[in-house]
Each structure stands twice: as structure tokens, then as C-alpha cells.
């Protein structure tokens, strides 16, 4: 039997024609996250906070440090976008409280099953379906780890006839990528229109909208935000869409709603959007470099010394988070703050 979403898409495309990649990704992920806990060894993938408590702890220290240097304004709100199991929030808030930062907790989450898990770990939190209902009475300390990569991307493809939307159609009962019919030149920046046939340009209006909203909030009510994800700090061409199931890459179009669909985050497109709202862009650093500047090596040594039986596991986790060939270089950390907030630890750029 076909998976339910595959059947729905097949029926839809048969009746009304191909759907956009963006539509395909949005509905697939809504279905995927809505009905399961995808994390951990028994799940489909593992994220940094699930690898080690050190990740969330260092984020909590980063937030406490910048909040203290900005003048300890209260009330202050911790906001996490797509908090998964709630593990990062638990570790970050635990570390922050040791430095006097005890914010109200807000989660932006759409998945019913993950909300239930988050409630168990954070009974005092407030939930939001999007950013519009977040409080406006104080600074926001916003964290988004592997959130933007799950938001739908739009793909444009250069065909012999010009730029077209990349769509999902049917070929002998299988979902396959096809080019749309409407000319899409206007959606491609002029500097990038002259690419060879077959070139794919990926853009993420949904990520742009989130960063626009976050930056606007920081500019008017104060605060800082960290966006952490795999992606690149320079513009690129090509499709980065991938599907992961049971820790393996699978075909993007074979099992909609049953695998995690993600795309690399184009940080080079997000920085100008933040700047357009008048906030400070602290930089986009490699995760390995950022965590090392924040003291992950010392924290790993302390944890290893406190529990010698786990010393090896702690060092392996540290290497996984920071190693060049592991998460250290592929993952980036982008920091932005309110215009009158200070520099953040781990970012080299200051202005
Ligand atoms: N930050 C967590 C989870 C990452 S997975 C971690 O690092 O482990 C992506 C998270 O974003 C999940 O919690 C998922 O349910 C949520 N999510 C995906 N799309 C969303 C959307 N459009 N709005 C709100 N949450 C979303």
C-alpha cells in the first residue's frame, strides 16, 4: 500500500497537474513532523542538542552573557523556534539560570506530537503557532537550531526556453521533478539569470520571512537571535534538497511525509534581510569555531573529569559537534542583535 501522502499527491497531480517543489516540501514536512518523534538513534536523524548537553549549555551561556552586558532588562523571554524534544531549551535554560537569567519560555512549534513531548519537559512554557503572538513587553532571546532547514524552499530551473519553476509531476506512477510552463525570469536576480541550461536556483521565502520578522522584533523590543543550521555563507547554485530516513539519505520524491526533507540554509541571503530591519549582524561563523571560542574544550574536560567512565563519550560528542569533517564546518551560526545591544561571544566581526 502506498503511504497516505504519496496517494494524495498522486491523485492531486493526476487531476490538476504538477505541484511546486515548495508545496511538496511544505506538505511533506507538515505531515512528517506532525505525527512522530523523529530524533535519536531509533529515529530518523540526530541533532546537536541530542548529541551532547554541551551544545545547549554553551548557547545558554551565550544568551546570559549578552543579556547581562545589555543591562539585564526584565521581563525577558527565551524563544525557541522548532524546539524538537525540548532538550536544547532544558540545557540552555539550566546554564543561563546559574548566571541569573531566568526568562519566560516560549516555543514556536506546529507539530502536535512534539508539542506533547515539549510539555513534559517544560510544563511552564507558552506555545505559539508562529511568531506573531510572541510577547512584546521585553527583549527576546531567540534560538533556532535546525529550524530553517525544514522550511520549504522554492526551486527555479534554467531550461532551453528560460527560467521555470521546478515542479513535481508524475512519470509512470512515480513522482519526478519536472519544469513548469510559466516563465519565471522575474523571480531570478538579474546577476544570476545568465546561468547554463540545467542550473537550479534555490530560494527560501519562508526562511526570509522568519528572519525578517525576528529582526523586526529585535529592532523594536531588544534582544538577540542565533540561527544555527547547515548551509553556506556565500551564494550558490544547485538543489540541496535531501530526504533522510533512519539515518540514511533516501530519494526526495519517493516517500513524502515519511522522511525528513531539508535544504541547506543560504545565510548569504539572510544577512541582508536582517540588516534591512536595522539590527546588528554579528556574523555567520562555522559551528566548530564558534563552540571552541565559547569554551567547549574546557567544558568537555570538566565533564570528562567529573565522570571518567563517560570521558571517551564526551570527547567523541565534542568532536562530532566541532570536527571539520563532521558538524563543525558544514553547520553555521548566524547571530543578530538589537541595534543597541553589545557584541556576542564567538563572533569575530565587530562594528
Ligand atoms: N531544534 C530541534 C529540532 C529540529 S527539527 C533540535 O535541534 O533538535 C525541526 C523542528 O522544527 C521540529 O520541532 C519541527 O516540528 C519544527 N517545525 C518544522 N516546521 C515548522 C514550522 N513551519 N513552524 C514551526 N515549527 C516547525
* DSSP helix fraction: 25-40%
Tell me, what is the CATH class of one domain? Alpha Beta
Based on secondary structure, the structural category is alpha/beta
The H-level CATH homologous superfamily of one domain, spelled out, is: Vaccinia Virus protein VP39
Question: Radius of gyration, Cα only, in angstroms?
Answer: 21 Å
CATH topology of one domain: Rossmann fold
CATH architecture of one domain: 3-Layer(aba) Sandwich
How are helices and strands ordered from N to C? HEHHHEHEHEEEEEEHEEEEEHEHHHHE
In terms of DSSP E residues, the strand content is 15-25%
Residue runs with pLDDT of under 50 for 5 or more positions: none
Tally of separate helices: 12
Major sheet attributes = 8 strands, mixed
The ligands bound in this entry are: S-adenosyl-L-homocysteine
In whole angstroms, the N-to-C terminal distance is 58 Å
The tally of beta strands, per DSSP, is 16
Mean pLDDT: 96
| Global geometry | globular
Protein described:
β11 and β12 form a beta hairpin. 37% of the residues lie in helices and 25% in strands. By secondary structure, the protein is α/β, with parallel strands linked by helices. α7 packs parallel to α8 (267-275). The longest helix is centred in the first third of the chain and has 17 residues, at 53-69. The chain has a domain at 41-148 and 206-232 and 262-337: 3-Layer(aba) Sandwich (Rossmann fold). It contains twelve helices and 16 strands. The N and C termini lie far apart (58 Å). S-adenosyl-L-homocysteine binds next to α2 and α3. S-adenosyl-L-homocysteine binds at residues 29, 33, 39, 47, 49-50, 82-84, 88, 108-111, 114, 145-147, 150-151.
